[in-house]
Design goal:
The protein has helices at 10-22, 46-55, 60-67, 103-111, 161-164, 233-240, 246-249, 254-261, 292-295, 304-328, 336-367, and strands spanning 2-6, 25-29, 41-44, 69-70, 73-78, 83-88, 99-102, 119-120, 125-131, 134-139, 144-147, 149-152, 170-183, 192-198, 201-211, 217-226, 268-276, 283-284, 287-289, 375-376, 385-386. By secondary structure, the protein is an alpha/beta fold. Strands 5, 6, 13, 14, 15, 16, 17, 20 and 21 form a nine-stranded mixed beta sheet that branches. Strands 8-2-1-12-19-18 form a six-stranded mixed beta sheet.
Length: 395
């Protein structure tokens, strides 16, 4: 089958790898001029690691495990630094671990296994349309694609999703969020994950990222500041360029404030926290959504990247079965029955699961310090933001 994937994040890359191995004709489009392995640390929970294993890409799981650090302990402190709770991370013998890992390590491990001839950077989606014969898409670099299946893996600000789900909107969760990675091996170590809480809510988190390729120890931090979302997009963008306010740093222990101040500006990112309401479907005809394009949520349950990886594996396996069925029938061109059945199965399998993830994430976010009910953003599908939450730094 001729398949286009829009978005070269973790879910898009993993799906492209699975489909590439199956022999489908893949085009992976990315609006950025090159692959973007940027970002900070994440907590990739065990089911996300299991999804990487289930993908069956030779060497991928082993490389990711080697680059990450199994989470060993969760530590909760108040804003004075006093210990509130400490508990060991649960892991049964023989199970894969939850990992503390830099997003870059995951993206680069996937990209190294993908055929670069199938990658089309600098191609932002302008529009798509479909009919009974297939799907066509137009991109802002002047390119045009036509084929059997279009997959939106282009994140919370998806260009694919609005035409599939016109009522899809971003919902503001109440935080401006800063995150960073700094060279440090003292603050937390051996797989520790620290949370700094005030009242019911989370103010900051810090976790061990192990060491980089040169042996330099790294620490990730996240800082969450509740505030209204400016109505003006230009003001939203301006505020995201500001350094973390000293008034906010004054509320956390001095050692944490010093860690944040020691982080170079180029190793920090800032965004506004959004999620989306559950969509009625992840599929429309020959178009499907995976990852944040279909179910962006806060990171309060560390399910964002994990859900996208699960989507990629599920859809890839079902399309593999459909391709085998079509091939066995000796069809010169893919018929609709096998593809439609695969997409229907994908939607039936994944939609209730991601709806539960979204409901749980919003419930926990609302309970742990959100001062307001989630607010609707001023416009659909844009604003300088990423899907973030209060309790973890998972993407």
């Amino acid at each position: 089958m001729r398949i286009a994937i829009v978005g070269a994040g973790s879910s898009g890359l993993l799906l492209a790898l699975v489909l590439q191995r199956q022999g489908h004709r893949i085009c992976l489009f990315e609006k950025a001029p090159e692959l973007r392995p940027d970002g900070c640390g994440i907590l990739l929970v065990r089911s996300g690691v299991e999804a990487l294993a289930a993908a069956g890409i030779e060497g991928l799981l082993e490389q990711v495990l080697a680059a990450g650090l199994p989470v060993s302990r969760f530590v909760v402190r108040n804003l004075r630094g006093d210990l509130i709770d400490s508990s060991a991370a649960e892991q049964e013998p023989g199970q894969l671990p939850s990992l503390l890992i830099h997003r870059r390590a995951i993206v680069e491990a996937m990209a190294s296994r993908f055929d670069p001839a199938l990658f089309h950077p600098g191609a932002g989606l302008l529009s798509w349309r479909q009919d009974g014969d297939g799907v066509e898409a137009h991109f802002d670099d002047g390119s045009y694609w036509q084929g059997d299946l279009l997959i939106g893996a282009d994140g919370i600000h998806s260009r694919v999703a609005p035409l599939l789900a016109p009522l899809r909107r971003l919902h503001y969760l109440g935080d401006r969020v800063w995150r960073g990675v700094v060279a440090d091996g003292e603050f937390c170590r051996n797989g520790e994950f620290f949370v700094y809480a005030r009242g019911r809510g989370v103010y900051a988190n810090v976790f061990d990222l192990g060491s980089d390729a040169s042996g330099t120890p790294l620490t990730h931090w996240g800082f969450f500041q509740e505030e209204p979302l400016p109505a003006s997009r230009s003001e939203q963008r301006r505020l995201l360029k500001e350094p973390l306010p000293e008034a906010g740093l004054a509320k956390v222990p001095a050692d944490l404030a010093a860690l944040i101040r020691a982080t170079p500006a180029e190793q920090q990112v800032a965004n506004w926290s959004f999620d989306i309401d559950p969509l009625p479907s992840l599929v429309a005809g020959r178009v499907a959504l995976v990852g944040d394009a279909g179910h962006a949520m806060s990171s309060s349950q560390a399910r964002g990247m994990t859900a996208g990886l699960e989507d990629a594996v599920a859809l890839g396996q079902l399309l593999g079965e459909a391709g085998a069925e079509l091939g066995s029938e000796g069809l010169a061109e893919p018929g609709s029955s096998g593809l439609e059945l695969a997409l229907a199965r994908y939607n039936a399998e994944r939609l209730p699961l991601v709806h539960r993830y979204q409901a749980r994430s919003r419930e926990v976010s609302a309970r742990t310090g959100r001062l307001r009910r989630p607010q609707r953003a001023s416009a659909p599908n844009h604003g300088a933001a990423g899907a973030t939450g209060a309790a973890t730094a998972a993407a």
